[in-house]
Specification:
The chain is mainly α. It is 51% helix and 7% strand. The protein folds into 2 domains: 1-50; 51-87, no CATH class.
Length: 87
């Protein structure tokens, strides 16, 4: 029988499986990085209550901006305005 030792059909399968494995590996790394970033941001939000509100100055007040508006899409209880610490 001719061609019985040829591995061409297996080479194509291995190429496809290798490419899928590479894509899966990249997706796993991206998911891990995204989760770590989410967890870090969540920890920062949990620490926000430790900042003394009297030490915060609204940037638009410093610049003389009035600002009458309500909240924004920043979330509940947030105005979307920038603040910085005075100390």
């Amino acid at each position: 029988m001719q061609g019985e030792l040829c591995l061409a059909r297996y080479a194509e399968r291995d190429l496809v499986l290798g490419a899928l494995g590479g894509v899966c590996a990249v997706l796993v790394v991206a998911a891990v990085v995204a989760y770590r970033n989410y967890r870090y941001e969540r920890q920062l939000d949990l620490l926000l209550w430790k900042v003394d509100p009297r030490e915060l100055v609204r940037v638009d007040d410093e610049l003389g901006g009035g600002g009458g508006g309500g909240g924004t899409a920043a979330g509940p209880g947030r105005t979307g305005r920038s603040v910085r610490c005075t100390t």
